[in-house]
Amino acid sequence: MTEAHETTPIQKRWMGAALKVGTPLISAALAIGVGSIIVWASGYDPGAAFAALFQGALGTPKAIGDTMLKSTPLILTGLAVAYGFRAGLFNIGAEGQLFMGGLATVALGLALGDVSWFLAVPLMIVAAMAAGASWAFIPATLKARIGAHEVITTMMFTYIGRYLVGWLVNGPMKEPGGIPQTYALPANAQLPRIASLFSEGAKGAVPLLNLGRAHLGIVVALLAALAVWLILKYTTLGYENRAVGYNRWASETAGISVQWTTVKALCISGALAGLAGAVEVMGVHHRLFDQFSSGFGFTGIAVALLAKKHPLGVIPAAFLFGALAAGAGTMQFQADVPQKIISIIQALVIFFVAAEEIVLWFVRRRQKEAMSHAG
Amino acid sequence: MPVLELRDVTKVFPGVLANDRVSFSLERGEILALLGENGAGKSTIMNVVYGLLSAEGGEILVDGQPVRIRSPRQAIDLGIGMVHQHFMLVEPLTVTENIVLGREPGKYGVIDFKTARMRVEEISDRYGLKVDPDARIVDLPVGMQQRVEILKALYQGARVLILDEPTAVLTPQEVRELFRVVRSLVDEGLSVVFITHKLEEVMAVADRILVMRAGRVVGETKPADTDDIGLARMMVGRDVVLRVEKGESVPGEPVLEVSDLRVMGDRGLEAVSGVSFSVHGGEVVAVAGVSGNGQTELVEAVIGLRRPAGGTIVLKDADITQANARRSIEAGVSHIPEDRHRRGLVLQFNLAENMVLGDHRVAPYTNAGIMKPKVITAMAKKRIADYDIRTPSETVSAENLSGGNQQKVVVAREIGRNPDLLVAAQPTRGLDVGAIEFVHRQILEERANGKAVLLVSLELEEVLSLADRILVMFEGRIGREFGPGEADAETLGYYMTGGGGEKLSEDAPYATTAEVRASSGTGLQDGARGEAE
Fold first, then answer.
1. Which residue is closest to A244 within chain B, CA to CA?
2. Which CATH number characterizes residue B181's domain?
3. For residue B283, which of A80, B136, B219, B251 is within the disulfide window of CB 3.0 to 4.6 Å?
């Protein structure tokens, strides 16, 4: 082909970039569109439903705070799954690693006693990440050594982790009383709410600071996203991770140990999921009980897919899912639309992301049509 | 009246004009060669004819009647058959079952195997395409599998047979046999379109030659009216050196010494059985052989991807027998893999990322685990310039480059590392003449710089033009070594298929058991993944 006929690689790159950002947006829009039809078909007013949803997710500073609150663990589990994806691994067990992270956080937080917040919180974060990583380590080793598929093993470890926590909060770690939960973390082991960091005066002057229940975990999550992005982009660790994810044969030929990279990738993924457990416990519940995660590990898969496995893309993707979750209550309350419709929309987003080929097919057809008109 | 005629057929892929108003006709009983570089649009146009792709413009006439071909099924109904580069056979099934697949004789869903077998034998006799109708595909050598594909097309009633790069997977003897078959087909009144980028083939087999470049037909000629230089010029659009000149060999110290090497293959059988040789600095040593005779395992052992079961590999004074790929690279071994898409490149990586692959963990590209994008970019820019890689920038993904430029990226990286030993496994596979010339020059450049080069190739022409010494490998052993000027293609081909006595006569029958066994194995097929057009 001569240059005149070919799309130049630069053009291809831009088209690629546009598709990368465009398809998730289209997927999300399609999901909301189809969701509206379902709302309408169920006999509700989609306009009112989405107005209420929006109001509940972003309408007031407090609502924004709620969205941030719900997004925080999703950013971290999204990162966890995305990092695994970038090594060609599907860590479906982020939920279990998140539970172990939560467990380590509470165990350490209760044991530490009266130490400085600046010592306690970093220590608990490290412990949670170590716990998440160790929970991924056995599946990782099994994968690297004998090729046991991580989808099976990490999932199984999720059950082990959840039931372990369930037993602990009902038994050895149970707070006296009727509720199966641990003691609450002392204040020096909590992540404070963002709103509590500002004086009433400041909040009066800048109403947007009234972020309700949003806590410092969002900062941890954003920093983690930045860190993962930097690792993938600028370190040999991330480079090898991506190389193995794209092409293990070429990696192996270039002297990269595929097995070792696999172990590292799943453990880092587990550490991020563990971190999600830590911030959820330290920022929201301040204690452990067996329902402390509403499936964040699993929603993280959808977040990572919607983000196209990009660590920075995880932020808006998690924000979308967080907003849907935050707005659901208001939607039911104001528009009388059942909250469950949100689950349907979330499922639709996943469906349309997974069915990206459908979206791409539309895009390509448009391009083709445009071209035949031009020609 | 031509059996097939194309008028102004235009095929557009998003952003690419793959075929630009292609017109030609095919007469009854004619062999038409479609010659062009990779990406010239040869396969694309024939895929349009076969109904695999739909054209955006133009018309196709069969027997003078305009037709619209929307699927291979329709093409077959119109008497057009196509044999693809990658065979589409069901491996566990027999020859007969494969041939009748989709058009099984019989009633009520019960296949009449007797009739099926009879018809297969009938066709096979008629066109002189001998094949065992009860053999299973997996047990057949590649040449035979191709024959089954041809028989299948004939069974389906093909009058026009399209062969897409049919010789890519064959030994010289098999190629000659294929040419004979093609001749007998046209003698029976069929018409054949022969897609290829190899000059000597069109000169040998074609009645008429159509040269394509950049999606257009740029010329038409007959073998009698041209020569390979003229064809190459038409194909590439400039003068091309077909056989790179090389100076006298000045072998220096031994760089690689392999002794009594034994390597197990994937199936747990010994693939390399006691091979010994050495490669000196300033010398190109070629391993010739039919694919699947242990070359891949030999290469993998040398570059540290496969632990030998016995013997030693010494690079300069270091024993690298048990070295892994990383240590092997660090010891000074570079490797141009036989499959650049699988082992050579990370296609989704950009060129800079690809060029640092393998060196990504060492200075100056990395310091304490942090990569240095500026240094890497500068290195990539320099290599893009030095090796004339056609790309707008180093940030383009490797997948967006043409096959020739992709290979240049691999060559630039492996040679740019300044190794002591360069292991080049089929370095020009799937490349067009211009890129082949480039790669050959680079290899000879390494030789001139006193480096040791171990070349593994299925292309005899390549082996003969580059090598100072040639080792012929057959069934895991080195059957014969040839010094400079001692061998020709015919002799090599003979030893490659297990011969050891007198020279093969020109018209030797094809399907002797020895040859069939010799060239068997699916390795050949794997080894022949050409460039997709």
1. B346
2. 3.40.50.300
3. B251
Residue B163 and residue B222 in one domain: yes
- Residue B343's pLDDT is what? 93
pLDDT confidence tier of residue A149, bands split at 50, 70 and 90: very high
Mean pLDDT for each 10-residue chunk of chain B (533 residues)?
Answer: 92 79 93 85 90 90 92 92 86 90 81 87 86 88 87 92 85 84 91 88 91 90 87 80 75 93 88 94 92 89 95 94 94 92 93 95 93 96 92 87 88 94 90 85 93 91 91 90 84 76 38 37 36 36
CB contact under 8 A, A9 and B400: yes
Residues B282 and B326 in one domain: yes
With respect to residue A316, please indicate whether it lies within any of the assigned structural domains: yes
Nearest to B182 by CA among B157, B156, B211, B154: B154
Residues B324 and B202 both lie in one domain: no
Q: Structure tokens of B54?
A: 């739909």
For B146-184, what is each residue's pLDDT tens digit? 899 999 999 999 999 999 988 877 777 788 889 999 999
Tell which wins on pLDDT, A368 or A269: A269
What is the number of domains present in chain A? 1
Gap from B341 CA to chain A (nearest CA, Å): 8
Mean pLDDT, residues A26-41 taken together:
87
**Chain B residue closest in CA terms to A12:** B400
Domain of A182, in residue numbers: 45-336
Give the number of other Cβ atoms within 10 Å of residue B152's Cβ: 25
Cβ contact A251:A243 at 8 Å: yes
- Do residue B42 and residue B137 come from a single domain? yes
CB B156 within 8 A of CB B4: no
pLDDT at A8: 57
Between residues 194 and 233 of chain B, which touch chain A (CB distance below 8 Å)? 214-215
| Domain co-membership, B55 together with B72 | yes
A3 in a structural domain:
no
Which letter does DSSP use for residue B453 in this model?
E
CA–CA distance, B259 with B310 (Å, rounded to integer): 9
Lowest mean pLDDT, pick from A21-30, A199-208, A277-286, B459-468: A21-30
User: For chain B, what is the domain count?
Assistant: 3
Residue B9 CB contacts under 8 Å (≥ 6 apart), including other chains: B19, B21, B22, B23, B45, B48, B55, B57, B58, B59, B60
Residues of A in contact with B357 (CB under 8 A): 243, 250-251, 254
CA distance A19 to chain B (A): 14
Single-letter residue type at B289:
G
ipTM value, please give it: 0.84
Within a domain: residue B519?
Answer: no
C-alpha distances in angstroms, B396 versus A86, B132, B340? 19, 50, 17
**Chain A residues touching residue B366 (CB < 8 angstroms):** 236
Residue B411 structural domain? 343-418
* Interface contacts (A, B; CB < 8 Å): 123
B169 found inside a domain: yes
